[in-house]
Specification:
Length: 214
């Protein structure tokens, strides 16, 4: 049997090399986050968890939420002060080493109907790496069993439309989602406009598709 100068067989050396190569091949996807399907699933699950935490916080406070996730991490739940709304910060697995926080905005609208006040909560959340990974967005189906308010339903429909229209153009998707958030932040009549006309806000984002014929 062939041996090297130290008395180790060539086959032993080859076996060690092959073993190291196999370990490297198996480790590379995890080390470099190359498992795109798992990363997508993990990112979406992160956003779902943040959505639930933000919605719960807004239901307990009846206030807007301006995206400070540390507030959810340090604030005890109203009915369970041993736990906070969000146990820890979460990051997209594609670039977790960069520690980019998810983009979150929550809108609260109180609607007076006769003598009753109807509370509406709507949360918009998207991945900070959406430009590079345009599929990292909460699917519309998630909200079906979450008992969304009327406001949240408006947001779900509009965001789904943005997602469909932009497809894999992540940069355009991010541009329009940021613009959509700004509408809710700056226009106090946004809810009334959307309630009156289901294309009112989409027309701001896609004027070429909703142009009024003269």
């Amino acid at each position: 049997m062939p041996h090297n100068q130290h008395g180790i067989s060539v086959y032993t050396v080859l076996s060690i090399i092959l073993f190291i190569a196999l370990v490297f091949i198996l480790a590379v996807p995890n080390f470099f986050n190359l498992d795109k399907e798992k990363n997508l699933e993990d990112c979406v699950n992160n956003m779902k968890q943040i959505w639930v935490a933000t919605t719960d916080y807004m239901r307990d406070t009846n206030t807007d939420f301006n995206g400070d996730l540390s507030l959810l991490i340090k604030t005890p739940k109203k009915d369970d002060n041993k736990h906070t709304y969000l146990p820890a910060n979460l990051y997209c697995p594609e670039t977790s080493h960069q520690k980019k926080e998810y983009m979150v905005y929550g809108k609260y609208v109180a609607e007076q109907i006769g003598t009753e006040t109807k509370h509406n909560y709507g949360v918009i959340i998207f991945c900070p790496n959406l430009t590079q990974f345009p599929k990292h967005i909460i699917p519309k189906a998630f909200y079906e069993n979450m008992e969304p308010t009327q406001l949240q339903n408006y947001m779900i429909e509009d965001i789904d439309y943005i997602d469909t229209e932009t497809g894999l153009n992540g940069a355009k998707k991010v541009e329009l989602l940021n613009k959509y958030v700004e509408i809710w932040k700056t226009d106090p009549q946004a809810f009334a406009k959307r309630k009156d006309n289901n294309t009112a806000l989409k027309a701001i984002l896609f004027p070429e598709k909703f142009a009024v014929s003269e």
